[in-house]
Amino acid sequence: MSNARVNQISSGQLACVLIVFRLSTLVLSKSVAYTQLFAEILLTLALSAVAFIAYKKSFYPAKNFPVYVTCALLFSLVFLDVMQYFKFTSGVGSSDVPLWVTAVLLAVFTLYSGVLGTEAVSRFCVVSVVVAALFILLLTVTNIADVRYDFFVANQNERINGFSLLKCFDVSLIFLLLAPDTAKKQGRALAFGTLIPYAAYAVIIMLCRAVLGKTAGIYKFPVFALFQLAEAGDFNKLDIMYVTLILLLLFCEISLTVSLFSRRIKKQVKK
After folding, report:
1. Helices marked H in 92-221 — which ranges?
2. What DSSP character marks residue 5?
3. Predicted local distance difference test score (pLDDT) of residue 66
4. In this predicted model, what pLDDT tens digit does every residue of 128-142 receive, in sequence order?
């Protein structure tokens, strides 16, 4: 029996990786505007289509484009998510842990996990997606009693944020980097990895606007505010779940980016 390919992942794992990269940006978003959501969906779908065509035409980084450049662009987008998390922690989060401690721990663990390879990281992405699904389900169930079914009354700035649109490139970049190492059904993985996070975030947006009402646009991080209002039994607040979810998603993002860099360096050393 032949040995399995190193860093070979399944289409399901690729879909989970794509979900992680998109969902981490969405849940850190400060906007619950439908226009912003629709603009991001359209741009992500367009970029995903271009990436899929480029892959089918064999024009992807492994052959025709510097992988280092693509990895650097992806890392830049991940870095923006990390900076957004630290803004959340310093501005809204109530943790007494110094930022540098969180940064050092995150760096150490992601560097360690990153050198294990994309297959190992992608497996953890699957776990993170399951955890995210459970947290979002719990958030929905605990807030359902407070829903007022006025999804369109929130006084939210409906202008489109170009900075957030920039982050939509993450799905296409990670697909171009991982599609050649995916066993099969890359197109299906791209479709699920693109649509599922937006479907989940659409539910979160409707909950924010239905529960928070006109105050939804006042909160700096409305999704976090929604977790704070939720109650499950003896747990008065579920905001710890929000922080846990963000850290899990960021951990996967950084680890996978490090893994892609380390794999490329190993190939150069072998040459």
Report:
1. 99-114, 118-143, 162-166, 169-178, 186-211
2. P
3. 67
4. 999 999 988 988 888
d(CA 74, CA 237): 34
Contacts of 144 (CB under 8 A, 6+ apart): none
The type of residue at 257 is T
Alpha-carbon distance of 107 to 49, in angstroms, equals 33
Query: Which pair of tokens denotes residue 23?
Result: 């969902």
- The Cα-based distances of 120 to 190, 194, 219, 221, 268 in angstroms read 20, 22, 37, 32, 21
Q: What is the pTM of this model?
A: 0.87
Q: Which long-range contacts (CB under 8 A, 24 or more apart) does 81-86 make?
A: 81/24, 81/25, 81/28, 81/167, 81/250, 81/253, 82/106, 82/250, 82/254, 84/25, 84/28, 85/28, 85/246, 85/247, 85/250
Q: How far is CA 121 from CA 10, 64, 132, in A?
A: 12, 26, 16
pLDDT value at residue 22: 93
Give the CA count within 13 Å in the CB-facing half-sphere of 213: 3
Ramachandran region of residue 117, left (φ > 0), alpha (ψ -120 to 50) or beta? left
pLDDT in the model for residue 269: 47
Tokens of 77: 């987008």
Largest CA-CA distance found in the chain, in angstroms, rounded: 63
- Going by C-alpha positions, the residue among 264, 270, 253, 7 that lies closest to residue 106 is 253
Could you give the CA distance from residue 149 to residue 79 in angstroms, rounded to a whole number? 37
Structure tokens at 15: 């879909």
Structure token pair of residue 228: 């704070």
Answer for the pair 229, 211: CB distance below 8 angstroms, yes or no.
Answer: yes
**Are the C-beta atoms of 106 and 50 separated by less than 8 Å?**
no
- pLDDT value of residue 1: 31
Give helix 169-178 / helix 186-211 axis angle, nearest 10°. Answer: 150
